[in-house]
Amino acid sequence: MVQSVNPYLNFAGNTLEAFEFYRSVFGGDFPMVVRYRDFPANMGAPPEAGDRIAHIALPLGANMLMGTDVVGADAAAFRPGNNSYIVVAPDDAAEAMRVFEGLSAGGSIAMPLQATEWAELYGICADRFGVQWMISYEGATRFRR
């Protein structure tokens, strides 16, 4: 079963500014603001991207608005309009695999479902209609700063 579905937005270096704006509109506090420098080896981001936002979240009711700054090679392909994802958080690994395989069938895989610093299973795909998805099963993995 899926625990939650949340929008995820990418920005070209102004994620914090955008999320400060969203907070001014919706209220609330950021439960997490993580910069690339907070990860080992900047999570693969270039050294100059260390201060950029790797992940930020703002509660919107029972859901979260989430975002990141695109860096490195991904920054060149960034265009407003291709900067949104839907994040699906399944409650077990089998469901994460099922959902990822289903959504990516006939589409494309940007990042195979795999373990990361923040999730037991995490992957990015676009479905056959071009909708971009992030599947994130946290499992026993917890990101620690």
Automatic annotation (TrEMBL):
InterPro entries: Glyas_Bleomycin-R_OHBP_Dase, Glyas_Fos-R_dOase_dom, PhnB-like. It comes from Luteimonas composti. The lineage of its organism: Bacteria, Pseudomonadati, Pseudomonadota, Gammaproteobacteria, Lysobacterales. Residues 12-135 form the Glyoxalase/fosfomycin resistance/dioxygenase domain. This is VOC family protein. It holds the Pfam family Glyoxalase.
